[in-house]
Every structure is written in structure tokens, then in C-alpha cells.
Amino acid sequence: MKENKSRREFISQSGKMVTACALFGATGSVAYAAETAKNTCETGKTMNITAKHYYLDNVLLEAGFNVDGDVATSTRTELKTLEIQDGKIVALRDNKSHADSALPHYDAGGKLMLPAMRDMHIHLDKTFYGGPWRSLNRPAGTTIQDMIRLEQKLLPELQPYTQERAEKLIDLIQSKGSTIARSHCNIEPTSGLKNLENLQAVLARRKPGFDCEIVAFPQHGLLLSKCEPLMREAMQAGAHYVGGLDPTNVDGAMEKSLDTMFQIALDYDKGVDIHLHETSPAGVAAVNYMVETVEKTPALKGKLTISHGFALATLNEQQVDALATRMAAQQITVASTVPIGTLHMPLKQLRDKGVFVMTGTDSVIDHWSPYGLGDMLEKANLYAQLYIRPNEQTLSRALGIATGNVLPLNDKGERVWPKAQDAASFVLVDASCSAEAVARISPRTATFHNGNLVWGTVS
After folding, report:
1. Tens digit of pLDDT for each residue in 76-125?
2. Paired strand residues for 212
3. Pairwise CA distance, residues 350 & 394, whole Å
């Protein structure tokens, strides 16, 4: 695969994207469940839970694996009532058991409860989503420098719509079950800090139902666009991560680019999340240099995410094993969009060696890609198709790439989620178990974040 191909090329395996509605729970409490706000989503359903303390009945929870010898053949489930208070699951009760009859109670309708999804690589600040359909011609041979020039023209046109379209993207990913995200946000001379300010305003409004980290992303090159001062301003303004981009292909000076990125992170006690698309030997050199830097800088341990990391696909199995062992020791994370086609990432091998691998949408209908669905369950499905031999247990484990490795059952089939005092952040799915949800990309019916119903409906 050439270095300058799209940073995210994959085939969508699920249905068409739809715009969803966000239904946020307010902060006040009510005495009876019948009191609802008239927020209407695309399906015409209405729902808004405003109580701080309530019961949720008929929740389908995984209880264990049925096994034949050492092989899990199916998943046992049971219906439970959840008691939810102040954003937490305070108790798992026998179904329809209400210790306090005065509390409101709602009905999940027997839908399967799964952990909230996490979209850990998305660009909320620049998108065509929510506006008219628009596809851009990217002829063969288009370079990232060509794309930078295009962005310099496009960004001023998109900026008046940044907040409105970011809101619509959040609606979309909530409708797919995600309530936690990490968004990269352009920081470069064309935009200055305007995209960051707009995104922060949106996230402040959406806080009751959505948690999102921000990566200050020097899309036009940290050195190339001379944006180190802007990046430092972004750190002072509240960005959570220092971003970076292809230090050889874009900045033309691998060590200087990476050293500058890491120094900003150290100066402001921030994490690092770099876009690394390079598949030449320079990409491998960049990965090795970053791992070495973290190894000799204890303050960076656990603070580096390599997004995309396509260079890893060029290594053989032994090379990946050796590098992954070092990455796991330094708690280095890989964020992948689970690309398909000619680029076969060693994602399972990384996970097997203890590297934390997470996934994200990346682009949703923008000048980079028109395909994004905002659906982390689709990503788990793609991961399963590409990297595992499908059976009940392996399919259930594949869900972890979408949920930050939070799973209802551990490898032994013991329930480890949900438990008392867990955050009441989850998604209700029309499926019988995790394995089916991953294999079938099952429909979502409701999404909760810290006890707030943010999309969908219960009765």
C-alpha cells in the first residue's frame, strides 16, 4: 500500500447511515416514570428519563458460557432489574424487584445490555455530515501535501458549520451506542484555535450524555506549518493530548518532529496521540524511535497512542512480537480503524501480546472519506472477520475493541460487568448475547450515559 493513499479505506459491511436523535436526561428528579419530555427521534419514539434514581426492569444480562469440554458453545443469560442512582448502577436485583415502590421504573424490553461503546479516533471538528451530500474527487497519486492544500481552502468554508455538524456527529455515534470518544481537532495556521473553541463549546453542552477527550492535531505538519506555538496555546486552552503527523513524509525531519511533539507533552503533562500513516521504512523507524523515547522517559509511560500505525503491517510475525512486547511494557496504545484490503494490520497479535488496541470512526463523510458509519459494533465485526476464527467465545471477546476491553464475561465465563458502583453507561441491543451482537451488528435500541438516556427509548 502506498504511503499517500487515504488514511482510512475500508468497505462498509452494515446498513446505511442514519441520522439519530439525542435525548438527554435532565438533572432534576421526578416521582413517576410517566413524566416524559417530548423529544422525538427519527423513529417517532419519545423518551426522556429525568429521574436521578430509578429502576430499569427486564434487562438481559450475560451470566456465563455453556461449554462442551473446553469450548464455549453458547451464552447463558438472565433478566435482571438494575437500580440506578446518581449516574451509577447501585444494585443488580431480581427482575422487577423494587425495594422502593415510590421510585420510577422503566422497562428495557428484554434487550441485551452491553457496555457503552467508545469511538476513540474521530474528527468531530471537520465534516460534511449534517450538510448536503458531497464527495470529492481524489485521483490516484493524491499526496498528503495535496490534501493539506485542499484543507487550507476547505477549512474556512466548513468553520461556520463546525458546531452544528459536530452536534450531529455526536447524535450519530450515540445512536450506535458510543458515549465516550476521543476527537482530533485541527490546530494549524489556517484555523488557529477556532476549531478547538468551537468543539469545546459543543462538548460543554453535551457533557451530561457524552465524554470526549480532545487531541490537538497539527494536520498541516507540526514543523511544516510552524505551529508549535499554536499547539502550546492549545494545551493551555484545555486540549488533553498532543497530536502529531507523519514526521518524515510531512515534516521531513523524523527525530526533530517527534522530539518537539514529546517535549510539548512533557511541558504540559499531557498524553500523545500521533497519526502515523507511513508504510515505508521511515514509518518503522518512527515507531521504534517513539518506543525508545518512552522507554527512556518514565513520565511518558502509558501516555502514547499510535493512531493507524500502518508501518506495523509491514513487519513479520517475529518483528511484531518483539516490538509488541516492548510496547506493552510501556503501556503504549494503538488506535486502529480496522482497515481492510491490502493492508493487514497485526491487531490480534498486538492484543495477544498485551498491547491495548482501540478503534474509532476516523472520518464521517468528509474530504478524506465518505464511508464512515460511526458504529463501533461494526468495527468489532470487521475485526472479527479479519482476525479470528469465529466461535461463541472469540466473538464475545472481539467486542472488547469497541468497549475499551470492558466485557460482560471474563475469559472463564464469569460475569464481571455490570457490578454495583459501575457507571450507568451502557447500550441496549436487540441480540441474545455479545457474540450475536458482534457477528450480526445487531440494532441498538437505547443508549445510556451516567444514568441519562441519551438516545432511543425504553418503556
Report:
1. 999 999 999 999 999 999 999 999 999 999 999 999 999 999 999 999 99
2. 181
3. 16
Phi, psi of 341 (to 5 degrees): 110, -130
DSSP-assigned beta bridge partners for residue 44 = none
What is the C-alpha separation between 435 and 66, in angstroms, rounded? Answer: 13
Q: Environment class of residue 269 by beta-carbon count within 10 Å: exposed (0-12), middle (13-18) or buried (19+)? A: exposed
The label of the residue with cell 425495594 reads 99
- Chain-centre distance for alpha carbon 84: 25
Q: Which of 202, 133, 208, 190 is nearest to 165 (CA)?
A: 202
Question: Nearest to residue 202, comparing CAs of 221, 222, 185?
Answer: 185
Task: Name residues whose C-beta falls within 8 Å of residue 79's C-beta, 6 or more positions apart in sequence.
Answer: 58, 59, 60, 61, 95, 110
Sheet of strand 178-186: strand arrangement: 117-122, 178-186, 211-217, 241-245, 271-276, 304-308, 333-336, 356-359
Q: Whole-angstrom Cα distance, residue 333 to residue 331?
A: 6
Query: Which residue is associated with the grid cell 507540526?
Result: 222
Residues across the chain: 459
* pLDDT tens digits, one per residue of 28-84: 222 222 322 323 333 334 478 989 999 999 999 999 999 998 889 999 999 999 999
Assign 3-state DSSP to the chain and report helix, strand, coil percentages, each to 5: 30, 25, 45
For the whole model, what pTM was predicted? 0.88
Give the largest CA-CA distance in the chain: 67
